Amino acid sequence: MGKNNTTNSVNKFHKEISSMSLFPHPYDLTRFLEQHFTDHRNIRTLSLTGPDAYKYKRDHSHQPFKLLLNGEDHLHILYGSHYSDWVCGGQWGSMMKGLDVFMAKLRDYHVLLAVCLNGSHEPKRFKEWVRRQEQMKDNANKIFRRLKKSGLAPPASWWVPPCGLKSVLRLGLATLNTPAFCSLDDYIIDIMDFYWKNNFHGVLGGSQDFFFFKCPRLFAPPFVGPSLDFNIITREYDVKGIGKSLGLNPAEFCLLGALLGNHILTVDDLSNFHNQLVPQLKQVKKIKIIHKLVKEIVYYIRGLSSVYNYEKIGHHLFGSTSEGPDPRVKKIKESMEYYFRGTLEGSRKHRKTEPLLIAQKLHSLPEEGIEFCSHDSTNVSGCHTLSNGGNIENHLANELTPCFDEKASISVLSESEKGPSVVNNISYSNERKSPAKEESHTNEDVKTIPIPYEVRRTATERHRLGAMSSYIYQVLCYGEIKFPVILENMKPNNLELPRIYEFYRPLRQYVYAILFNLHHHKFTRKQNQETKRTLESKISGLLQKSETANLSEEDTVIASEKVKKLKKDLEKLDLPESHEVKIREWLPYNSYQKPCIVEGVEVPWGVPTVQRLWFGTSMEDKEKRIRAFMSCIRCDDVKPLLLQPHLIPPNFVFMACILRYIMVSSNYPVLKKSELDVFLLTSLQVGTYSDPSQLDAVTPRGVQLASLFMEGVEMALFANDACGAPFPLHMTLPWTFFDGVLFHMYLQKAASVQNLYELCDNDELLVSRVEIMKSVIIPELMNNEYLIRYPKRNIMGENGYYGFLEGGRSFHKSNFLHPGPFPRGKAMAKKKVTKGKPFSYNESSKKSYTKKTERSTMKKKFLEKVNDEEFAH
């Protein structure tokens, strides 16, 4: 009886997951298989923390059961979308507790889980990505209509990922010591390469494409429910057995995936063929009719004499034209090659590049630069010109192979018809292709400054390990950023809050200039121009002197030799072009029809090059990093106050910088006085509250404020990584200073109280700490008596975390600093301060703030002087 209940719960769960999938397919093969394979021979329910795991642990005690999780399709499961708190901006503390228990439970049963996150740009999947974002936008609009009408939390089927979810997961997995990596090019292909290369036992898929890669063991999204006492249940698909049951060999099974539609041969391309097979599709697309379409495609493939005769298949599918073969015929072949690329044979063939062969090709290139291309499964996605310096041959196999053109076909034909090797040439071009170019969205050509080799290499390595914001890799390699839909009111008449992505654009403009060394290039060009003018004036002076003055023959020869020497120096002078940094930003406000061309803005001081920010080891370099970050986030004028641990605890400095940016970056007030108090109070109370109770109502403004703040966290992480990570990992963890449900709870309470004293439940110590932090964030409007001078201390400790690499440029290993525990909340008053550890409020500092007469006088003056309107302005 219990087993039947479990099976029913799993069936119900998988139906719900299918309805809220982030990657829906119009003709879902999973539903067809689950309906037509009811004997459980090819599809069976499996418990990862039950008898099956016990059996594997007993038989293979020396080796864990290794599973690879497709994180992009399972974001809602990793967060826990069956709770409705995702609409409040993210209850990150609860998410981390759930992840910790989830990973610990798997480890107890000898299961090792690695998570893959999508960090690639994927130009060829741009249309598919836009369709998904349009669905997210519809969900967001429904959520705001519901909140405005009733204030109730939305159902799980309206899932929209909380702002910053991927970055929080990336940081959370690092702190939990869970293996994770981000994709570089095609996300699905990168997962399969990682799967085959590291000998995993199975894939927790989610996307329909995984059925056609010959995975030995393919699993459905896991079911984790409190009703099952945290028993992790999934479904296993025997892909080989399913193919045999359908009467299809592996190559024919790949053709089934192509004829159902994918990102290469789309469903729109196949619409006429589908309507011919099942005419009822024109009227209504019901599940039964869709299942009939799958059957008809299977019958069609069985009747083919050869699946490799693409011209004949194309003629059946698309007919013939007077102009020649239909261009969609080529897409059939590309789809077959794509599915072969994800198999074990295709992955091995892709890795068979000989480093010596590539080295010989590189030696034939000019010294001034090499153009590297980002590889794609079937085509080139673009190039950048990089400096050719250092001992490149030593790193070719690991670092440069993914950068070559892969125009050579990976064919699934017979041995006599197979194509050439994967890497057969190196392509050189002057510009990088992009979605804007491939889809003809814009004709404007955007060029960026060449990237130093060591910078691009380090960015690629850290991006692959999930140790850097994915935006940096996209900007450096593609010159573009795609911003997903978030929970904000996108209506043009919404004047309550600014558009979130546009609000943080000035911050990104500073970051673009830092990443591409805009200041250095302008300074170098200015120096060379001055040198050129000096040389030209000397040449003109010597020529004029030789023409007007009566010089002897010997003096004339000397003057002519000087002129020749100066002309040679002028020719050798390298005068770089006038560089402009322009980045394409794809925003949801125009439905991704056209990118916004955003220019990099130079930081208003002599910022060092990105090489020095990332790899420098001197004390001056460390100071420049923190100054560059403060300039990007507009905290230059309050930097000395922000870095004082007696004013703001170290784990709240990152949050204070974001709030400072929000306060000073708009022409009209964005936050009210009470809302800033709520943000600060939430950060102080995150560690002291247990899980907040269920909210009675959620307000649209509260949802937008939470999204505004969390996007600020995302952009601050972007700036922090671009500046060389002056703030270490443990100072940037969002769950240490923000909780969406707690924020909304205090926001509701702030609407019914008269002042901060009542909001803090008459806790005078809590009031004083909020006022002190507020006086640092906006010292222009606060009483300076709060800024009591104390001896300066380094919030990073004596041996701070500065830069990406240890020992300068010679070490290219990612350096993680494992954080120690941070005291939070009221417990901070009981902690003792020790040298080299993060500062917390101790008894002596508490006494200095809790003199009864001084505190009451300051409080009365503040409440009389500052009201909501004055504070906002």
From TrEMBL:
<dbReference type="InterPro" id="IPR029060">
    <property type="entry name" value="PIN-like_dom_sf"/>
</dbReference>
<feature type="compositionally biased region" description="Basic and acidic residues">
    <location>
        <begin position="430"/>
        <end position="444"/>
    </location>
</feature>
<dbReference type="InterPro" id="IPR026784">
    <property type="entry name" value="Coact_PPARg"/>
</dbReference>
<feature type="region of interest" description="Disordered">
    <location>
        <begin position="833"/>
        <end position="856"/>
    </location>
</feature>
<protein>
    <submittedName>
        <fullName>Uncharacterized protein</fullName>
    </submittedName>
</protein>
<feature type="region of interest" description="Disordered">
    <location>
        <begin position="423"/>
        <end position="444"/>
    </location>
</feature>
<comment type="similarity">
    <text>Belongs to the constitutive coactivator of PPAR-gamma family.</text>
</comment>
<dbReference type="GO" id="GO:0005634">
    <property type="term" value="C:nucleus"/>
</dbReference>
